[in-house]
Amino acid sequence: MRRRDFIRVFGSAAAWPLAARAQQAGRLPRIGFLSDQSERPHPFNARDYFLKRLYELGYQDQHNMVIDYRYAAGELNRLPVLASELAALPVDVLIAIGTPASKAALAATGKIPIVFSRVADPVASGLVTSLAHPSGNATGTTVITSDLAEKRLALLKETVPRVNRIGVLHEKDFQPGDAELKQLISAAPRLGLKIHAVAVAPPLAATLNAALGEIAEASVEALFIGSSGWFEDLYQNTLEVANKSRLPALYVRPEFVRAGGLMSYGPDWGQMYGIAADYVVRIVKGAKPPELPVQQPTTLKLLINLSAAKAIGLNVPPTLVARADEVID
Predict the structure, then answer these.
(1) Which of 47, 48, 51, 153 has the fewest C-beta atoms under 10 angstroms from its C-beta?
(2) What residues contact residue 282 under an 8 Å CB cut-off, 6+ apart?
(3) Once rounded to an integer, what is the mean pLDDT over residues 37-43?
(4) Pairing label, strands 66-71, 30-35
(5) Helix, strand or coil for residue 315?
(6) 3-state secondary structure of 161
(7) Domain count, the chain
(8) How many CB atoms lie within 10 A of CB 25?
(9) Strand 249-251 to strand 326-328: parallel, antiparallel, or no bridges (unpaired)?
């Protein structure tokens, strides 16, 4: 885009990309990292994947890039303030992890480039006008969570052929989780299944324990653990729900299976965080968000933990085990 066109579209050359000007001024590019999760280390932490890919691309915090972090730790009402803090520094690029964080970032600035990740539906969330041609100052990656609902239910049914009623553990009043639940409810009749939703809300550890009672009363025969940054932050508590109920459970992320859960089906989340890091670097070098289409997963993987199956007395069909991309004994 020529300079006069840039000015015509966005009003002034003072809009974005700030990162390009940072390089021209000889200072280190400054990145804002906004997450709905907590800062404490765990297998699901987007920060680790992000920093690993930046390192592979030749960038390190406090070496040739400065990164400012803000974590909401599950308190989503804090995100607007945290996003505004990063925008006011100002940062040159803002990476937002999760749909709530991404929406808060977009509300905080229409000028600073935003790269989002762990977003189920960027168009429905109002982050971009289309995946192929994002407009404005945001782009990133999507994990297309809700579109996978029917396939995930089908895998549970194949794993437990007798299943009729599936319990869905989901985060209360969480937009991506609500969309996911609607997809599950819509898909269930086509598979001869019924859905019983079990909502949890902060304080999560306490309500996860309470969910066990509701699951038992509902007489569900399998569990689907929905998308939620809280479930990832408290993954051990989340796993206990399935373990104590002794029900077959399917998760959206492979990290749950590697930590002791039964099975998962979905994209490689680490890869998607890595692509977000690629986009941050490209913007630092002068690219503009509208030039970078929103990236979708190119591969979906099935993981099965046979030790978890044995613990609940489940024999996973050999045909399903043969199709798995990763089997944990």
Answers:
(1) 48
(2) 292
(3) 87
(4) parallel
(5) coil
(6) coil
(7) 2
(8) 8
(9) unpaired
DSSP state of 286: T
**In this structure, what token pair is assigned to residue 221?**
């025969």
Dihedral over alpha carbons 205, 210, 216, 219 (to 10 degrees): -90
Alpha carbon of 227 to those of 25, 85, 175: distances in Å? 42, 27, 10
Instruction: Retrieve residue 271's tokens.
Output: 């890869």
Q: For residue 312, list its beta bridge partners.
A: none
**pTM, entire model:** 0.85
146: tokens are 């809700």
Q: By 3-state DSSP, what share of the chain in percent is helix, strand and coil, each rounded to 5?
A: 45, 20, 35
Domain at 108, CATH number: 3.40.50.2300
What token pair was written down for 201? 């809300």
Same-domain status, 234 and 307: yes
Q: What is the pLDDT of residues 175-204, one digit of tens each?
A: 778 888 999 999 999 999 999 999 988 777
The residue written with tokens 């399935």 in the block is 242
- Same structural domain, 133 and 13: yes
Rounded to the nearest angstrom, the gap between the alpha carbon of residue 5 and the centroid of all alpha carbons in its chain is: 35
* Structure tokens, 28: 């280190």
Strand residues in the chain grouped as ranges (E): 30-35, 66-71, 93-97, 114-119, 138-142, 165-171, 194-200, 222-225, 249-251, 263-267, 300-305, 326-328
pLDDT tens per residue, range 124-147? 899 999 999 998 999 999 987 666
Q: Residue 138: phi, psi to the nearest 5? A: -130, 145
CB 140 within 8 A of CB 276: yes
The answer to whether the CB of 252 falls within 8 A of the CB of 145 is yes
Residue matched to tokens 């749950």: 256
